[in-house]
Structures are given as C-alpha cells and as structure tokens.
Amino acid sequence: MKSYEGVALLAPVSFGYARQSPHTAPWFIGKTLKLMLQQSGISKDEIDGFAVSSFSLGADSVITLTQHYQISPRWIEQLPYGGASGVMALRRAARAIQAGDASVIACIGGDGAAHRSFERTAGEFSSFTIDSSFPYGAGGPNAAFAMITRNYMERYGATREDFARIAVDQRYNANHYSPALLGHKTLSVEQYLAARPIAGPVHLFDCVMPCAGGEGFLVMDEERARSTGLPYCLISAADELHNAHRDDPVQERGGWTTYANDMYQRAGLGPDDINLVQTYDDYPVISMMQLEDLGFCAKGEGQAFVQATDMRFDGSGPQPNKLPHNTNGGQLSVGQAGAAAGYLGVTESLRQLTGTAGDNQVAKARHAMVSGFGMVNYDRGLCSAAAILSGAGS
Amino acid sequence: MTTSSKMQSRMKLNRPSVRHKARPPKQRTPIGEAFTAANLPCALSLQHCADCGAAQYPPRELCHACLGDLVWRETAGNGVISSRVDLHHSLWEFFKRHTAQQPWPIASIALDCGPTVLAHLDLTSFGADSADAVTAGTAVQVFSHSDCSQQVVLIAVSAHEAIGTADQRREITARLGLLEPALKPGGI
Fold first, then answer.
1. Kind and range of the H or E element at B138?
2. Cis ω on the peptide bond leading into residue A320 (within 30° of 0)?
3. What count of other Cβ atoms lies within 10 Å of the Cβ of residue B186?
4. Which of A124, A134, A250 lies nearest to residue B83, judging by beta carbons?
5. Measured between beta carbons, which residues in chain B are less than 8 angstroms from residue A249?
6. Looking at residue B18, what is its pLDDT?
C-alpha cells in the first residue's frame, strides 16, 4: 500500500456535547466547522473538500449541507459508518490530498440528540435489524454485544472485574477532560460491579450514553499545514477491513487481525513504540478485543493485559505496565454522539500528539494507535479500521 | 383547543408508554413481511438458494453464497446455542413491561442448516430459570410462530420438547407471553 507521506491532520475540534439538544445534526456539524476554521485561520471559501458522518441528517446529506453552509467543495464524501467513520474519513481525505483532488478537507462527524431519537435510530438501523433483531427486544446493540461478551467470557475466562479495569481507568481520564458528560463523577470498581443489569453480563457502565455533539479535523498537505502555524500530525499507517471473519459463529475478533502487523511494518514501529491507544469502546469487551487484535497482547490474554496495565493518561495507577488508553474517557465516559463518536479517537489523538490536550495531556506522546469499529447490522460489528498517527516532530 | 395543542395531545396518546396495550414491534421490511407470510402455514420456513441450495437468515434478496435467487422452503430448525442472554432493559414498550417483571431471555442459535438466528428462548422447556443456565452448545429446535402483532418471530426450545403440532407450538408461544399484549401496569 502506498504511504500517506505528505498528508497532515490538524485543528481537532470537539464541540457541544449534550445529553439532549433542540439542535439538529447540521448545527453540530456547522459549529464544529466554524471552530476548525477559527482555530486554523482558514476561511470557509478555502474548504474544497468536505467529509461528513452522521446518523441524524434525515433528508439531508453532505451535498445539501454544502448549500446550508454555502461552501463549494470539489470533493465530498459521506461516511455514515458509526465507530469507524473517523479513521475511514481520514484515509479517504488523505488520498484525495495526495491525488490533488482537494487541498483543504474538513472531516466532521456530528449528530443531534432529540428526545427519543435513539429509539428511532436503533429500531430502523438496517433491514436485518428491523426484521431479525429489533423484534426480539434488543435495545439497540445491547443484546448483540451482551451475546458477544458472554461468549468471550466463557471462552477466554474474562470476568466483569476485568472489564471494570477498562471502564474505571477511562473514567479517571474523563475526570480530567472537561467536555466529558460523565467526567464530573468518579467511578470505582465497586460501583461498576454494582450497576444495574442491562442485558446478560452487560451492566449500566458497560453501555455508552447516547448524546449530541460534533467532532472534526482538517486534512491538507504538509506545506499548507505549516503555513497555518499550527502543530499537526502525520499518518504513519492506516488500514481497514469490513465484515472480516464472517464465518465466526460469534464475533471474537475484528478485521484488525489481518492488517495490524502490516501497519506496524509500514510505520516502522511496533506495539511497544505506541504511546497511547484510542480504541472504539462501545462496550469494554470490544476495547479488549482491539487491544488483542492490534497486537498489544495475544488473543485471549486481554483480561491479563488490562489487569497488569495502567491505562490512565498520567500513569498514576498502581499497575506495572503503562499504556494510556482512551485518554479523554472514551465514549463510555464522554458520551456517544452518534457517528461523531467514530471521530472521538482521532481528535483526541491529534490533541495528544500536538501537545494541546490540556489537563489530560499524556507526557511524551509521539505515536498513537487509533482504532474504529462499528455498524451492528445483526449479530456483530461490521466495520474495522485503524491508523497509527504520529506527531510531526517525531 | 388549538390545532397545535390538539396535535400535541394526539402525539402524546400515541406514545407507547401511555398505551393500555403494548405489542411487540410490528414494523418489517417487505422481505420481513414475506418471512411472516411464508411461515404462517408451517413450523419453519427459510429462504434457500435456487442455484446452490444454501439456507439464508436474516431474510434477504439474494443468496449470501452465490448471489442466486431465493425461494422459501420448509426447514428443520435443529441447531445449537451459540450465545444467550437475559434482557433486563429494552427500548420497546412491550419488552419494557415484561422486563420490569422478569428478565426476557433470547439466544443466538447456529442452525444445522447453516445460518445463525436470533430467537426468543423458552426457558421452561430446558427446566432453566435463566438464560445463563442454558449453556452454549446445548441442542435446541427453532420454530416460527406469529405474535400478537401478527408478525412471525422465531422461538428456541429444548431439542426434547414436542413441537410437532401447531397446538404444541402455540402453547409454547403463549407461555412466553407473545400472544397477549403487555398491559399498562395499574396504579396512579
């Protein structure tokens, strides 16, 4: 695969997180765009590429948004791919920059959260969902992931105490990231274990809270990025594979297993060189699966890994190994702003690698692994995508 | 009453939480409707490929193996439990009312004929008191039955349960609570 040389990512923005909002997706997407422009000093008319991810655009699409915001891009892309949207957007935007199809691309995920809108999204997610999972009481993807979690626990011996490690360290990180909707509350292992049951082994703190918000970043060539005066990041490697391992009776792995090694090779890095990891944490079991499939530990060793690893952003935990993970709290503590949640790991990585994270800054963050996962059509998540991002100075 | 407040009160009445009778989801795609139609006269009917014979589920337009056209065909529902859970929460009022009383068990089942299906799990036939008590790998039979929304759903029972007659299948469906709407709880 051709390298992503010469492509810069910058101006990460996270905007407007709220449990409910009277505003619709175009407001969150547009406000995110405005903040990206303010941050970079780039004018709206200079945006000639526009990638959008959203579940709540309704009759609108990326093309109708161009008139809403009065921009005239020569490259547009719509990526309603849930948790993989952010990494997929950056890959496509990077290729468009390399090919010269566009010069300044805004990649934005944004969703509103009208009263009871989550019900509609969950109930009408896809044909398979409508016909074959929603009629069985599945509350959104909870039932599918409860089955996946139950199977994983029985097969590999993981316990709720292991999943608690992920949720509890993420909450600590969220306590240092002010936009996190649950960041004002602490979470102990005891509280995690005592939470009310939702489906099978999945309890309240294993589930994300649906919310509204926007996430975005700019993609351009390095020269242009330098002219903004802003710190930026490079793509050391990236890949994706969808509906992988499709014959596994219950999902135990994702597409990452097929390309993680190649990614490390292309980046000239190994798992030990990665300073922080952002997994897509729609449920802790999925984060554990990504840590395994991305080579941080072997399959089935996820629970031993999280027990021995301090995943706090500042390394203040008692565990001997250190690997900052979901350094702003992830969706489990920030909230899941629809398809914007698929951008959360990218924007957070960009802040960390450019030293602009603020209170939750990871010391000496040079290389980040960011992983995306998403789209539960029936019994499993279909999308997988991952990228190794590096600070421009590294 | 102004038009807009009339509309508001109508919308309020339409909210499932204030409905006296709540039923399972009725919405289906056209192919989901075809699944219901094909299953009304028999114990289980799944789409099969007219070319390669592969069984299919969830219902779809084309064969997952060779993209051939599909026909409905009666099928034996033997299989094994892949995974199973008790639901304690749902977004749908019918299930909300049930899970407020007791957990609602469901299972994913690898059918011997190929596909994996999601089904309501009949604990009684296993002598089990929770979904977890029905271990992965347990042999089951899956059959279809209409619920009180007049849509067909799948139900998994022990491999030893008698499901040969329509009456037997109806009795199992009834004990799951699928034939009656869930009534609004009393009180203030």
1. none
2. no
3. 5
4. A250
5. 82, 110, 116
6. 67
Helix (H) or strand (E) holding B119: strand B116-121
CB A62 within 8 A of CB A75: no
Residues of B with Cβ-Cβ distance to A120 under 8 angstroms = none
Domain CATH for A18: 3.40.47.10
Query: Does the beta carbon of B165 lie under 8 angstroms from any beta carbon of chain A?
Result: no
Instruction: Please answer whether residues A121 and A58 qualify as being in contact, where contact means their C-beta atoms are separated by less than 8 angstroms.
Output: no
| A123 to B136: CB separation less than 8 angstroms, yes or no | no
Q: Decide if pLDDT at B2 tops 50.
A: no
Q: Are residues A109 and A243 in the same domain?
A: no
- Characterize the bridge pairing of strands B45-49 and B21-22: unpaired
User: Once rounded to an integer, what is the mean pLDDT over residues A337-360?
Assistant: 97
Q: Can you give the pLDDT at residue A123?
A: 73
Q: Checking DSSP bridges between strand A309-310 and strand A321-322, what pairing results, if any?
A: parallel
Q: Which of A120, A127, A131 to mutate to test the interface with B (most CBs of B within 10 A)?
A: A131
**Which residues from chain A sit within 8 angstroms of residue B23, using beta carbons?**
none
**Of residues B59, B88, B92, nearest to A199 (C-beta):** B88
Per-residue confidence band for B16, with pLDDT thresholds at 50, 70 and 90:
low
The pLDDT of residue B5 is 57
Residue A363 domain boundaries? 136-208+236-391
A201 and A340 share a domain? yes
Tell me if A353 is assigned to some domain: yes
- Mean pLDDT of all residues in A251-266: 98
**pLDDT tens digit string along B132-169?**
999 999 999 999 999 999 999 999 999 999 999 999 99
- What is the set of domains in chain B, with CATH numbers? 28-179 (2.40.50.840)
Angle between helices A142-156 and A284-293 (to 10 degrees): 50
pLDDT tens digits, one per residue of A220-244: 999 999 999 999 999 999 999 999 9
List the single residue in A with minimal CA-CA distance to B130. Answer: A200
> What's the domain count of chain A?
2
| pLDDT given at position B27 | 94
What is the mean pLDDT of the segment spanning A248-272?
A: 97
Q: Is residue A222 part of a domain?
A: yes
**pLDDT-based confidence at B3, cuts 50/70/90?**
very low
A140 in contact with chain B, both atoms CB, cutoff 8 A: yes
- A58 versus A176: which is more confidently predicted? A176
pLDDT for the residue numbered A138: 84
With an 8 Å Cβ cutoff, are B87 and A137 in contact?
A: yes
CB crowding A83-112: b at 16 or more within 10 Å, else e: bbbbbbbbbbbbebbeeeebbbbbbbbbbb
Put simply, whether A285 touches B (Cβ < 8 Å) is: no
Work out the average pLDDT over B80-87: 97
Instruction: Name every chain A residue with its beta carbon within 8 A of the beta carbon of B92.
Output: 123, 134, 137, 139
**Percent of chain A at pLDDT above 70?**
99
Do A157 and A96 share a domain, yes or no?
Answer: no
